[in-house]
What does this fold into?
Amino acid sequence: MTGEPALRTVGLGKRYGRGAWALRECDLDLPAGRIVGLVGVNGAGKSTLMHLTIGLLQPTEGTVELFGQPLRMDRPAALAQVGFVAQDHPLYRGFSVADMLHFGRSMNPGFDRAGAEARLRELGIPLGRKAGKLSGGQQAQVALTLALAKRPRLLVLDEPAASLDPVARREFMRSLVEAVADSDLTVLLSSHLVTEMERVCDHLVLLHQGRVRLAGEVDDLLADHRLLTGPRRDDTGPFDGLVCATHGQRHSNLLVRQPAAVPAHPRWESHPVSLEDLVLAYLQADGKAE
It folds into this structure.
């Protein structure tokens, strides 16, 4: 990775009161102009990390930098570079779409109202309709449009398509890819829908129990892992880089981290892995370690 990262965290941690750490020792460099997928089970620290990167929370320890500058909650100029869309797409239900565009313009001096109106017309969303009368997919698109119209350099999306039907979800993801393709926008996207993320994400961050378990370019991570299938064996010690093992009556499946050029063990077949295979293997391995 070359160039200045869009987001850098060093030793980042957040603890609520005297309770457990929600995020600990988080070191990340997220590349600019890419879509970064953020995955992990509920309670892994995803929302905490996102809220720290947009200034909604103050870290207990460590630092956050946006495009080379420390993020400080008392510096509105830095926060103006960030857009955010929450899972429930919070909109004023009694406002019309046009009202919300007017409100967005009043809160953000650089708000691109003309571009937002054009985008919504292209999507077939009436500007005069009340937010409460829109479908779930339309509400998600309005929320995304408002965030994009702010002209952020970093867009943070917290499960934005979780409540949408498959067609609306696919349309939302397509719109997101187009938005990034037309600009140098960086996106941090949290989602449990790994199959959808595989279509759009360039970079992956996997959190478990408040710590970074895996991070890197998606293509590099997939190339570094293989699925080995062979005769059942409960003793998996000889397999270097073992991430997760599952066993049937006669066969074992081992996901290992090793370059594709390394030959498979005798009597074992080597297969490429999908992003979903990779994520589930790490989550299963971590779950058994608890």
In short: The longest helix spans residues 166-181. The two ends are 33 Å apart (CA to CA). The first strand starts at residue 7 and ends at 15. The chain has a mean pLDDT of 86.
